[in-house]
Specification:
Mean pLDDT of chain A: 93
Number of strands of chain C: 18
Structural class of chain C: alpha+beta
Strand order of the largest sheet of chain C: 1-2-12-3-13-16-14-15
Largest sheet of chain A: 8 strands, mixed
Distance between the termini of chain C: 70 Å
Low-confidence stretches of chain C: 1-9
Helix content of chain C: 25-40%
Oligomer: heterotrimer
Shape of chain C: globular
Order of helices and strands of chain C: HHHEEEEEEEEHEEEHEHEEHEHEEHE
Chains: A alpha+beta, B alpha+beta, C alpha+beta
Strand content of chain C: 15-25%
Low-confidence stretches of chain A: none
Strand order of the largest sheet of chain A: 1-2-12-3-13-18-14-17
Number of helices of chain C: 9
Number of strands of chain A: 19
Largest interface: B-C, 34 and 42 residues
Largest sheet of chain C: 8 strands, mixed
Shape of chain A: globular
Mean pLDDT of chain C: 91
Distance between the termini of chain A: 35 Å
Radius of gyration of chain A: 21 Å
C-alpha cells in the first residue's frame, strides 16, 4: 500500500506505479505483459494447478487524478491542465510533485492582503492556476521540467492506529488488494489487470477486457465514503471501516445480480461485515468490462475512503484486508457454483 | 399487480401481445418479468437464449445474410439509494425520464411492493423550477424499520404500467419500448419465413445507454440490422416533421446514428411493397438502440424503424394504434425482402428521395 | 440554377498535383456523416493513384493499402483521417417554404446567419440562412446569438416548390469556395479534416517509392464529427487490428486572444501530440523523425483526450499503440478554416519517414514474463 500510494501515476503516465506492481507480483504470476495502452496483464493459474472454474478477470486501476504541464510562461511559471475530475477548491496553496524527477512546485495564489473582499470569495479556476517551481525564466524552468510532465499531489503515506493516510487510494488500495490476492494464489484461474486511464473515461480496462475475454469480472476499487458532519444516517453510507463496499448499481454498471448475491452470501458465511455503495453515483472500469465483446457479468467491491480525488485520503486498514478475504472466498464459491 | 386494462376495440394478436408485454415487470437490468413474457410469446419460433447482460436472443435459422432485429425490452426504472428516518426512501432514476414526469406515479417492485413517488415541494411557489432527481422520494406508508426491510437500498422498481386505450391511441408508461417489442413479435408471427438468417435480440438495459444492444449486436456480428423503437416527437423545440398516426418513421439521423444507405433502400422497398406510408425522422437530440448497434464490433449497417410517440408530461407515452399496426406490416415485409446486392465500389449509388 | 462550387472543382485527381491543388480539390467535395456518396468515389480515385490496393468497407471507410516489404505476417500501421465535414440535414419545411435544419457535427451558430449554403437536392439549390434586418429587431436582440434550431434557410422559392424539390433528410453544406490568402495559405470550409486527407494522399505517394517493412493502411474514416464515438476509426481499427494507429487531424492554429500552449503556430509544421491518448513509443518515434528531417514542428500537449480518431483507435480491439499528428488550422468549424499547405507537406514527409523507419519487430506491447 505504502509503495503504491507514494508512486506517482496520473492517467497516461502510470509507469512508476506499474514498476512497483511488477516488483510485488512478478514471482507470483505465470505470465506478465504490458499492453499497448500500458495496462499490466498477469495470468495466474488456480492454486494447486486446478483448472476447474470460470476464467475470472480481477481489475484495479493504477492511474490517479492529477495534472499535466501544458505550457511554460516567460517568467518560469508552469501552466497545467487537469487529468481526471478534481475540485478546484482544494488546489490553491497546495504542493505538487512534477515529472519523474519529482521537482516540487506550489500553486501560489495572491495573498488575502492584496485582494478585494469580492475576490477573496472566488475560487481560482484551474485554467488560471500556475505552479511556481522557483524558476525565474522559461529557460530555467525547462532545465528542470518538460512540457507534458505529469503533476501529482506531494503527499506521503502515513499510518496511525487502523488509519492509513495517503494519496491516490482511488485506486491504489485496489491495486494492493489485487496484488495481495495474486500473491495468495486464487482458487480459480484468474487474469489480473492493473489498468490505465480509468480516471479519464474508463479507457484502459476497455482494451484489456477484450484481450482477456473473461467469463466474469470483479473490479476492486477505492470509493468515496459518505461521512460528513450533519449528514443523515443514510447519507453517511458507506463508512470508512464498515467493511467491503458492494455495488448494486452506479452510473456505468448494473452489477450482475448473481455475483452480488454470491458476494453477500459469502460475506455472511465468513462473518465479514459489508455495506452498499450508494446507487446512482460514480462509475468504474466494471462498466466498460461489462460492455466489452458480447458482454461480461461484472461486480465491484470497494474500500470506502474519505477524501478521494483530493491531496490526501484516509482508509481503515481492516477494510482492504476484508476485501481480500471476501473476494478470495467468493472466487472459491464461484469455482463450485458458477455454471 | 395491474388492474386488467379495458378491452381494446379491435382485439387481435397485436393487442394480446401488448396486454401481456406492457405491464410485465422489467426495469433496466432487472428484466425478469418481460423476459418471461417474451419467452412465452416466442414459443415454437426457434431456439431462445439469454446472455451475460440479460438480452433475450431468438435465432430463426435461414438462408441469406445474417440479419439482426433489435427491440429493447426494458422500461425506465427507479432505484432506492437510501432510507430516511421517517420511512420514506430516496431514489435515483434508471433511464431517460425527467424527475417531473414521475411525480405522482405509483412504482411497483418485484415482490409486489408498491410506493408513490413524491418530491420535496418548495415552500414557495415562486421557487418551483423543474424538480431535480434528488428531490424525489418514495412514500412507502411504512415505518422506518419495515420500510428498510421491504425497500432495501438497491431495490429496483418501475412505474406501474397499465395499458389503456384512449380513442385511437395506446397509453402506458412502458410503451417505450414494449410497443416495439410487441411489434417485432407480431411481425415474426406474420412472416414465419424470411429472406435472412435471422437473429432477434430483445435488448436489456437499453434505458441505461443501449448497453444490451451493444453487446447483443457484438455477439451476433450481423451483416445488417433493423432496430425497432419508439421515438418521442413533438416535445419542446421539436425540429422534426413527424405526426402521430401518419405511419412508422424511418430514421435518417439522430444522436449517434445516421441511416445506412443499404438499409434505407431496403426499408423503402419494403414499405412500398407493404403499402405502408412512412415518415422520416431527422433529429439532433434523442437516441435509440440504433446508434449502439451500428457502432458495435466492426460496425453494422443499421436502419431504425421508429414508432412515433408522444410524451404526456406524466409517466405515460402515447402511441397511435394505426402506426403500431403499420410497423408490424413494415417489419414483417422487411423480413421477406431480400437485400439489394452490395453496390459495386466505383458505381455511385442511385439517388433516391434526395435523402443523402 | 447557379453553379455550385463543388461542381467546378470536381476534376479527376492528378498525380502531379501540388498540395494546394489537392486541398482545393478535397475541400470542395461535399459529404457529412452518412452522406458520403459523392465523396467516396473521389477519395478512392485519389488513393488509387498511389496505393497498391483500394477498398471500401461496409461502414463506408476508404482504405488505401501499401504492402510492406518485411517478412510476412507483417504488422500493420493504420493512418486515419476523417472524411466527414460538418453540415446539416433538412428536418422540416415551414409554411412559406422556409427550411429548418439539424446540424451534423458541431457548428458555431454565431458564424451562420447570412451565410450561403448549397442544398444538395437532386438539382442542387442555393439558399441563405435568413436574418432579420436591424429595423425589425427588438431592442437587445442583436446581442444574442441565435441557436441553430431557431435559424432557417431561405431559397426564395415558394413553399410548393421547396416541398417538391427538398425531401426531409436532404444534405446541406456551407457554400464557400476556397480562398487563397497570402503566403499560399488557403481558407475554406472543410479543412477539418480534408487537410488530413491530403496528408494521407501525400504519404501514400511517398511510400510508393520508399517501401516500409510494415503494411500501411491509409483510412479515410467516416463519422468523426457526429455522435459519441468516432465511428469509422473504431470500426476500421476493429477490422484491421493494427499494431499502430496514427490519427491525422487539425489542431488549433495560433489566433489572437489565445494563449501559447493552447495553440500551435500556422506554418510552423505539424504538431506531434502527447498525452494519455498517445503511446509514448509512437510519440518518441515521430519526434525523432521530425528532428532527423530538420523540419519545423511543435509538441502539443493533450492531457486526457486528443479529441481525434485516436481516442477510439486506442481502445479498439485489444488496444492499439496510437499517435496523433496535427495540422495547424485557424477558425475551426467555421466556413473559413485556414491552413498552410507547407504544414501538410511537412506532416506527410514526417509520417513517411517514421513509417519507413519502423523496425519489423517493434510492438506496442511488452512481455515481462
Amino acid at each position: 500500500m505504502e509503495a503504491f500510494s507514494n508512486a506517482d501515476g496520473p492517467s497516461g503516465w502510470e509507469a512508476p506505479v506499474r514498476a512497483k506492481v511488477v516488483e510485488a507480483v512478478r514471482d507470483a504470476v505465470d505470465s506478465l505483459e504490458v499492453d499497448a495502452m500500458g495496462s499490466l496483464v498477469a495470468r495466474v493459474g488456480a492454486a494447486g494447478g486446478r483448472r476447474r472454474g470460470p476464467h475470472v478477470m480481477l481489475c484495479a486501476h493504477m492511474d490517479e487524478v492529477g495534472f499535466m504541464v501544458t505550457a511554460v510562461e516567460k517568467d518560469g511559471r508552469l501552466r497545467i491542465r487537469r487529468v481526471g475530475g478534481i475540485d478546484p477548491r482544494i488546489l490553491m496553496g497546495q504542493v505538487f510533485r512534477i515529472g519523474t524527477k519529482g521537482i516540487r512546485g506550489v500553486a501560489g495564489v495572491l495573498p488575502a492582503h492584496l485582494l478585494s473582499n469580492n475576490d477573496m470569495n472566488k475560487v481560482v479556476p484551474i485554467e488560471e492556476l500556475f505552479l511556481d517551481i522557483g524558476a525565474a525564466s522559461r529557460n530555467e524552468a525547462l532545465q528542470a521540467v518538460s512540457l507534458g510532465d505529469l503533476v501529482a499531489f506531494d503527499t506521503t503515506y502515513e499510518a496511525w492506529g487502523q488509519v492509513r493516510k495517503g494519496k491516490a487510494f482511488d485506486d491504489r488500495v485496489g491495486c494492493a488488494v489485487l496484488a495481495s490476492l495474486v500473491q495468495k494464489r486464487p482458487p480459480v484461474p484468474v487474469t489480473a489487470v492493473w489498468a490505465v486511464q480509468e480516471e479519464v473515461g474508463l479507457r484502459g480496462a476497455a482494451a484489456a477486457a477484450r484481450r482477456v475475454s473473461p467469463d466474469l469480472a470483479i473490479v476492486l476499487e477505492g470509493t468515496a465514503s459518505g461521512e460528513a458532519p450533519g449528514a443523515s444516517d443514510g447519507e453517511q453510507q458507506p463508512r470508512m471501516g464498515g467493511g467491503p463496499t458492494i455495488t448494486i448499481q452506479d452510473r456505468s454498471l448494473m452489477a450482475d445480480a448473481r455475483l452480488v448475491d454470491l458476494l453477500t452470501k459469502t460475506a455472511k458465511a465468513r462473518k465479514i461485515p459489508t455495506q452498499w455503495k450508494r446507487p446512482g453515483v460514480g462509475g468504474t472500469d466494471a462498466g466498460r468490462i461489462a460492455l466489452s465483446g458480447a458482454g461480461v457479468p461484472a461486480a465491484v467491491v470497494s474500500v470506502a475512503c474519505r477524501y478521494i480525488h483530493a491531496p490526501a485520503a484516509y482508509l481503515d486498514i481492516r477494510d482492504p484486508r476484508r476485501v481480500v478475504e471476501l473476494v478470495w472466498h467468493t472466487l472459491e464459491a464461484l469455482g463450485k457454483e458458477w455454471a | 399487480m395491474t388492474p386488467k386494462a379495458r378491452r381494446a376495440p379491435r382485439a387481435n394478436a397485436l393487442d394480446a401481445l401488448l396486454h401481456s408485454l406492457v405491464p410485465a415487470y422489467g426495469p433496466p437490468g432487472r428484466e425478469t418479468g418481460v423476459r418471461a413474457a417474451l419467452r412465452g410469446a416466442l414459443r415454437g419460433m426457434g431456439p431462445v437464449s439469454e446472455d451475460a447482460l440479460g438480452n433475450l436472443h431468438l435465432h430463426r435459422e435461414g438462408r441469406g445474410p445474417r440479419l439482426l432485429l433489435v427491440a429493447a425490452m426494458d422500461a425506465p426504472g427507479v432505484i432506492v439509494t437510501r432510507l430516511e428516518s421517517n420511512g420514506t426512501a430516496r431514489i435515483d432514476l434508471l433511464g431517460g425520464r425527467s424527475a417531473a414526469e414521475l411525480i405522482g406515479a405509483v412504482v411497483v417492485f418485484p415482490e409486489g411492493q408498491r410506493a408513490l413517488v413524491a418530491f420535496d415541494r418548495p415552500s414557495n411557489n415562486k421557487d418551483a423550477g423543474a424538480p431535480e432527481v434528488g428531490s424525489l422520494y418514495l412514500v412507502t406508508g411504512l415505518d422506518k424499520n419495515t420500510a428498510a426491510k421491504r425497500f432495501p437500498v438497491g431495490s429496483v422498481g418501475m412505474a406501474e404500467s397499465r395499458l389503456d386505450r384512449l380513442g385511437d391511441q395506446w397509453r402506458s408508461p412502458s410503451l417505450d419500448n414494449r410497443a416495439g417489442a410487441a411489434a417485432v413479435v407480431a411481425a415474426l408471427k406474420k412472416s414465419p419465413r424470411s429472406a435472412y438468417d435471422l437473429h432477434v435480440v430483445f435488448a436489456a438495459q437499453s434505458e441505461l445507454g443501449s448497453r444490451g444492444a451493444l453487446t447483443g449486436a457484438f455477439g451476433v456480428d450481423p451483416e445488417l440490422a433493423i432496430v425497432v423503437e419508439l421515438a418521442h416527437v413533438g416535445d419542446g423545440k421539436d425540429q422534426s416533421s413527424v405526426t402521430l398516426g401518419e405511419g412508422p418513421c424511418v430514421g435518417l439521423k439522430e444522436h449517434g446514428y445516421v441511416a445506412h444507405p443499404r438499409g434505407l433502400d431496403l426499408a423503402r422497398k419494403a414499405a412500398k411493397a407493404a403499402r405502408v406510408p412512412i415518415q422520416y425522422l431527422v433529429r439532433d437530440e434523442g437516441s435509440t438502440d440504433a446508434g449502439a448497434v451500428r457502432r458495435s464490433g466492426v460496425g453494422v449497417p443499421t436502419v431504425l424503424i421508429a414508432i412515433p410517440a408522444r410524451k404526456t408530461g406524466g409517466p405515460d407515452s402515447l402511441v397511435h394504434a394505426r402506426d403500431l399496426e403499420r410497423t408490424v406490416d413494415l417489419v414483417a415485409r422487411l423480413l421477406v425482402t431480400p437485400p439489394a446486392p452490395e453496390p459495386a465500389p466505383r458505381k455511385r449509388a442511385p439517388r433516391r428521395g434526395g435523402a443523402r | 440554377m447557379p453553379r455550385s462550387n463543388h461542381k467546378s472543382a470536381r476534376r479527376s485527381a492528378q498525380v502531379e498535383w501540388s498540395t494546394e491543388e489537392w486541398l482545393r480539390h478535397l475541400t470542395a467535395l461535399p459529404g457529412v456523416a452518412g452522406h458520403e456518396d459523392a465523396l467516396v468515389p473521389e477519395i478512392e480515385a485519389a488513393f488509387r493513384l498511389f496505393a497498391d490496393k483500394v477498398e471500401r468497407d461496409k461502414m463506408g471507410n476508404v482504405l488505401g493499402w501499401i504492402h510492406g516489404n518485411g517478412p510476412s505476417p507483417r504488422p500493420r500501421a493504420l493512418l486515419a483521417a476523417h472524411l466527414d465535414r460538418i453540415g446539416f440535414l433538412v428536418s422540416r419545411i415551414e409554411s412559406g417554404g422556409f427550411i429548418r435544419v439539424v446540424p451534423v457535427g458541431g457548428f458555431d451558430p454565431r458564424t451562420l446567419p447570412g451565410k450561403e449554403v448549397v442544398i444538395h437536392s437532386k438539382q442542387p439549390m442555393v439558399a441563405l440562412f435568413g436574418t432579420k434586418p436591424p429595423h425589425l429587431q427588438k431592442k437587445g436582440e442583436a446581442e444574442k446569438v441565435t441557436p441553430i434550431e431557431d435559424l432557417y434557410l431561405d431559397t426564395g422559392y415558394p413553399e410548393a416548390v421547396v416541398k417538391r424539390r427538398v425531401p426531409i433528410g436532404t444534405l446541406v453544406m456551407l457554400r464557400q469556395p476556397p480562398v487563397g490568402l497570402l503566403k499560399s495559405r488557403l481558407a475554406a470550409p472543410g479543412m477539418d479534416n480534408r487537410s488530413g486527407v491530403a496528408v494521407l494522399v501525400r504519404t501514400l505517394q511517398a511510400l510508393r517509392d520508399r517501401r516500409p517493412s510494415w503494411d500501411v493502411i491509409a483510412v479515410g474514416t467516416v463519422e468523426e464529427e457526429d455522435g459519441q464515438i468516432c465511428l469509422g476509426a473504431r470500426t476500421s481499427a476493429e477490422w484491421l487490428r493494427p499494431e499502430i494507429g496514427i490519427a491525422i487531424d487539425v489542431s488549433h492554429g495560433d489566433m489572437p486572444g489565445t494563449r501559447e500552449g493552447d495553440t500551435v503556430p500556422l506554418g510552423g509544421g505539424p504538431s506531434i501530440c502527447m498525452g494519455a491518448n498517445i503511446h509514448p513509443g509512437v510519440f518518441a518515434g515521430l519526434r525523432s523523425s521530425a528532428r532527423a528531417l530538420g523540419f519545423p514542428f511543435s509538441v502539443e500537449v493533450t492531457p486526457a483526450s486528443s479529441g481525434t480518431d485516436a481516442m477510439d483507435i486506442q481502445i479498439a480491439s485489444v488496444g492499439v499503440a496510437t499517435g496523433v499528428l496535427g495540422i495547424p488550422c485557424r477558425y475551426m468549424h467555421t466556413g473559413v478554416e485556414v491552413v498552410a499547405p507547407s504544414d501538410v507537406d511537412h506532416c506527410a514527409a514526417l509520417l513517411a519517414h517514421y513509417l519507413v523507419g519502423l523496425e519489423p519487430e517493434w510492438r506496442g506491447t511488452e512481455v515481462l514474463k
